[in-house]
Amino acid sequence: MNALSPIPALTLRAAPLDDPRLEAFVRGQAGATPFHLPQWSRAVEQGTGQRAHYLIAERDGAVRGVLPLTEIRSRLFGSALVSAGFATGGGALAADEGSAATLADAAWGLAQSLGCPTAELRGGAVPAGWQASTGVYSNFTRALPADEAALLGLIPRRQRAEVRRALASSLETSAGNDRRHRNAHYRVYAESVRNLGTPVFPRALFEAALDQFGDEADIVIVWKEGRPLAALLSFYLGRTCQPFWGGGTWAARTCRANDLVYYALMRHAIARGCTRVDFGRSKVGTGPWARKRIWNFEESPLTYAVRTADGAAPRQVNPLDPKYRLKIAAWQRLPLWLANRIGPVIARGLG
User: Fold this and answer.
1) Radius of gyration over every alpha carbon of the chain, rounded to an integer in angstroms
2) Which residue, 302, 312, 320, 349, is CA-closest to 121?
3) Can you give the three-state secondary structure of the chain, one letter per residue?
4) Dihedral angle over CA of 52, 214, 24, 16, nearest 10
5) Nearest CA to 344 among 198, 234, 243, 181?
6) Most buried pick, 27, 47, 83, 319, via CB within 10 A?
């Protein structure tokens, strides 16, 4: 009887973000998200100044798994190693469970060597030795029909009526990633998050993301008389559209622009050949979470994996934490110009 050949050892190393095998591997995996692509890591590093790390697992020279990481440093919120930074997804993306577990172990080792007391994996199975964080976020998705003519009939009755009223009004929609759309998106998004009581991310992050993803990212805007009311910045991977950064102004509520931007985005995604929209996560109990439920998107509770050094307190950046209540209320009263000036300094440390 012939002896079984030994399985080659799995090797781990830090990979440069320009290694072409990273993108090729990610695009070939069923569970891939835009946040696993090196484009995302480059955009975060360029747009926030937070350092990117990218681990790769190999066997016989073939990629078996990848793990994008962001080293978050903040005087207000502490330090953490996060996969993926500034994203709603991430975690080890691997061809087998063994590779995923090995990558998670390596991430914790890297966190310790960098002096980060917390590591967080936003996706994938919870590795041994890590704690599961649940109940904070839900993710929302929906399948798209092949023909946009069928889309309106699939929308729940109440929202369908709102969309029809919006379509009959003077509102207009457009899509693009040019300067006009970028300026309009930031204007709307900055006002939206100020109204929610949270600081806006640096404009450089949005610019870097759009530049890195190129034709695989764009912005849908709802306009009224040339003024932007609602906006969604989306990424495309395979046949999935992922609207990620979006919001609406106060005026959007009375004009039904928030409903119209969802509908316009789905029409645009169908025109691009998408079969699915991943509307991303929302914090349970918030307004965005309630709105997505009203639209009857498919809801899935999210579980993240967190590991904290012995004796260290877990990093807390959830704005629903009671200790942030007064700060949020104060932020909502800030003049928009002031919130936009100091917000990015704070938000770059949220990760």
Assistant:
1) 21
2) 302
3) CCCCCCCCCCEEEECCCCCHHHHHHHHCCCCCCHHHCHHHHHHHHHHHCCEEEEEEEEECCEEEEEEEEEEEEECCCEEEEEECCCCCCCCCEECCHHHHHHHHHHHHHHHHHHCCCEEEECCCCCCCCCEEEEEEEEEEEEECCCCHHHHHHHCCHHHHHHHHHHHCCCEEEEEECCHHHHHHHHHHHHHHHHHHCCCCCCHHHHHHHHHHHHHHEEEEEEEECCEEEEEEEEEEECCEEEEEEEEECHHHHHHCHHHHHHHHHHHHHHHCCCCEEEEEEEECCCHHHHHHHHCCCEEEEEEEEEEECCCCCCCCCCCCCHHHHHHHHHHHCCCHHHHHHHHHHHHCCCC
4) -30
5) 198
6) 83
**Contact of 250 with 214, CB cutoff 8 Å:** no
Q: Are 121 and 100 in contact (CB under 8 A)?
A: no
Distances (CA, A) of 135 to 89, 233, 287: 16, 26, 16
Q: How many CA atoms lie within 13 A of 269 on its CB side?
A: 29
- For the stretch 106-143, pLDDT in tens is 999 999 999 999 999 998 889 999 999 888 889 999 99
Closest residue by Cα to residue 336 from 228, 227, 188, 151: 188
d(CA 206, CA 140): 22
Q: What would the two tokens of residue 294 be? A: 């009203």
pTM value surpassing 0.85: yes
One-letter identity of residue 196: L
> For the chain, how many residues are written?
351
**Tens of pLDDT, residues 14-61:** 899 999 999 999 999 999 999 999 999 999 999 999 999 999 999 988
